[in-house]
């Protein structure tokens, strides 16, 4: 059990599960705005690219495991790189499903669309900001390694 609780092994497991799941999920388009750009991405490509990103981070954590000293930052980063893209996909999927109801309700107002755009932007910007966590962890680890050698 301790073997799977290594950060790189968990990322490898999550990437494998996402890659396998991408072959069995029904295809639909994820549409979302990030600032002024409108993205339309098939969910299968989204999940496969997410799995590739997890594999890249697994290699990063495998190579730099001895330098990463703050385990809480490591686990916070792993949780965010797995969950935040899935949250964006979930918000986009629910918003697209609700568009069928917009025509028969008063939710077609611009505020309805702006609220969805703000929520996706908030999740995306937090996700991008948290990508600095491994760099901070690496810097603290390198400083600690340097202090041990001096």
Describe the structure.
- The radius of gyration is 19 Å and the shape is elongated.
- It has helices at 7-21, 43-63, 71-102, 110-129, 133-149, and strands at 29-34, 37-42.
- The mean pLDDT is 83.
- The protein starts with 6 loop residues before the first helix and ends with a helix.
- The chain contains five helices and two strands; from the N terminus they run H-E-E-H-H-H-H.
- Strand 1 (29-34) and strand 2 (37-42) form a beta hairpin.
- It has one domain.
- Helix 1 (7-21) packs antiparallel against helix 2, helix 2 (43-63) runs antiparallel to helix 3 (71-102) and helix 3 runs antiparallel to helix 4 (110-129).
- Helices cover 70% and strands 8% of the residues.
- The longest helix is centred in the middle third of the chain and has 32 residues, at 71-102.
- Strands 1-2 form a two-stranded antiparallel sheet.
- The chain is mostly helical and 150 residues long.
